[in-house]
Amino acid sequence: MATVFVSQVLRPFVPGRSVEVPGRTVGQVVEALGARYPGVIAVLLEDGDLRPGVAVSVGDQLAQDGLLEPVGPGDEVHFLPAFAGG
Amino acid sequence: MTTVDRPPYRIVGTRPIRHDGIDKVTGRAKYANDVQIPGHLHARFLRSPHAHARILSIDTSRAEALPGVFAVVTGKDFPEVSAVLREQTEGAMANMGLLSRHIMARDKAWFRGHAVAAVAADSPHRAEEALKLIEVRYELLPPVLDALEAMKPDAPIVIDGLVTNTSRTTRAGGILGPGEDGPQSNVATTFVMELGDLANGFEEADIILERDYHTTAAHQGYIEPQAATAFWSTDHQLTIWTSTQGPFAVRDNTAAILKLSPGQVKVVPAEIGGGFGAKLNITIEPVAALLAMKCGRPVKLAVSRLEVFEAMGPASPAYVHLRMGITNEGRITAADTRLIFEAGAIPGSPVPGAANCMFSPYNIANGRIEGIDVVVNKPKTLSYRAPGAPSGAYAVEQMLDEFAAMLGKDPIELRLLNAAHEGDRRINGVACGSMGFQETLEAAAATDHYRSPIEGPWRGRGVAAGFWGNATGPASVIAGLLPDGRVSYIEGSVDIGGTRTTAAMMFAEAVGMPVTDVRPSVADTDSIGFTSNTGGSSVTFKQGWAAYEAAQDLKRQLIERAAKTWDVPVDRVRYEAGVCTNLDDEAKTLTTNQIAARMNGTGGPIIGHATVVPRGVAGGFAVHIADVEVDPATGKVTLTRYSCVQDVGTAIHPGYVEGQMQGGAAQGIGWAINEEYVYNAEGRMENSSFLDYRMPTALDLPPIETHLVEVPNPGHPFGVRGVGEAAFVPPLPAMANAVAHALGTRMYDLPMSPRRVLEALARQ
Predict the structure, then answer these.
(1) Complex-level ipTM
(2) Domains (range + CATH), chain B
(3) Nearest to B169 among A44, A60, A65 (CB)
(4) In chain B, whose CA is at the least distance from the CA of A85?
(5) Model pTM?
(6) Which ranges of B163-304 does DSSP label H, i.e. alpha helix?
(7) Which end of chain B is more exposed for a tag (fewer CB within 10 A), N or C?
């Protein structure tokens, strides 16, 4: 099970501060979230992929493989505003 | 220099001469404006003299009729592309429809200097002559030049149809679609991050401070203006030679804007005369390309310094409202901030960078961060080292300085008391990974500088910390063994700050060969695998991983070749420092040079390669100490001593690391005490030259002392952390704190120029 932290993006759909969902990849985590909380898919995905502008952090590392990013048991998953360096 | 648990490296940690050094000091290195394609034309931009105007018509007929003019393009020549956000490398994004309109205006000029047409002619003078023949009719509109003004309900709307995204996910692109109606706004995006219970946090505080801070626009200060040459071949392949930090981004975004396939575009990165974030994305390349496509000739487009200032985009100005609570013992209990960042003419300021970094050095249980991205009638702001983070730190680190004074605590002691450690949760919710902030603070406290007294009137010392998360991304390497045993090392990262040498050092370390035997070079986008931008302090990290993996691949092939030669299994061959030994008969050895000399007759070329997308990034922390003396008669701030202390992971080439720290400090010092974009009411920049835009020179700065704290990153084979950007975060608040102590009064906006210092003294 992964622990998804409920950021502002998810707050309209997901109650509480965090929620545990199954999934071995970010995509499976999103799918599990969407099955439990209708509406989540629409704000996280666009054309079947992560929406541009959404950064995903697994643990303390920003995901590099989008929906295919591996998620280990007990990993924290965060959906954040994307940002870049200079 | 502090060294912690470092393996006995042979090359890592030394200071070899950079491979590209001789070419650069003798003038042989080729920059974008040195590119000379036979028969190339010269292009020039016609730019809007107005900060906000509707373009009623553009008549280019007289320019097109001028002999020697080969092509003229305006916004009508650009294809319409979707206004949906498009992912860039490092998680950044761009609305390609708006970016296209920013590169060449369509129905409106959004800022003074906005390109409205471009001409390609057989000489630069002919192109300039042709510009004068283009007639543009404008309907002037009132400009809005400041984020706070732009947020008012009655402010002029910069982008027709722009609506506010309440998060970056609720509406793709943020533009009203055909037939849609809604409240237009200059506020492009807002977001909120929250942690803990803010109300309870402030309840627990004994002291609460609430302040407003303002940082100005600042120029990245790259020496080389943007330049690009484009060639459209008869088989519809586009080649672009350009000065860029991101050749693959130039490829993909130029293709998107011109509706080409990325496979039709090859980008050749030239040596780069500075970027600091400003050359991460396309600015002029699609225009050069479109001109070349229109006339079938190579076209060179090089902008002037005036155009750089008026049209290329500085770091974002920012307004930071900050409220923090602290106990009498010095524990921060709550932090609440509202960040308003100017994006320039199209959305996309680095407000997320500020939000993610400003509180990250500290363990704060209760926090809230609101970020707001606002468009105004100025060029789109561009990244500048650690984009967003300096403005956030400017607020937090000044408030901590005030708390320290109120509590009678040493400023470093206060920071140590609140320092975040691995596992502590940031306000964005993410738990901290490996970090060396405590070690950096302790090293700063132990410096001779910090322990020395500062005495006398009008003198002050300031301390500040800063954080940058550092980045990663795909990186590719081809390491081909040459017949003499040297290695042609081809990488995809544009070299800024000596990164090709650091990559070569890590490769040489992993292979066990002299670094002088590695010949590094940077490839074009057709010749190497995708490599993400030279930005985010990512290059040494990701290229180090690629170098390590390519070295393993090369070593594996050397072992296989030796095993084949001796007709033994590969596990009977030991490789060590360039020598293969037959374990069944240790008298038999083959050096890399011997294998290389015969490789084409023993099985063919030996080429190591790697394409990596490494994890294991670790953030970096810096603590700076500034001593200043203020002249109360003139208001001039003189820097008398400056020290940088930074958690750098393993310093691959300490000289380059020190250079990054000193460069970041120098740029931040300039932003703190001199630099600003001065606009008049009509939106014209009034100091658009390096004569009037005052960056510090060697004459303005004392020697900048560097203290490298090496806390190796466990997520990297050589312990690398990014170093280029963390060094740029503390200077603004360190200087502000020093000036506050020198003056006896605090300034909350930048720059602390003589005029503003005198105004502050007059208010005292």
Answers:
(1) 0.86
(2) 2-28+472-612 (3.30.365.10), 143-424 (3.30.365.10), 433-468+617-764 (3.30.365.10)
(3) A44
(4) B536
(5) 0.95
(6) 198-204, 247-258, 285-295
(7) C
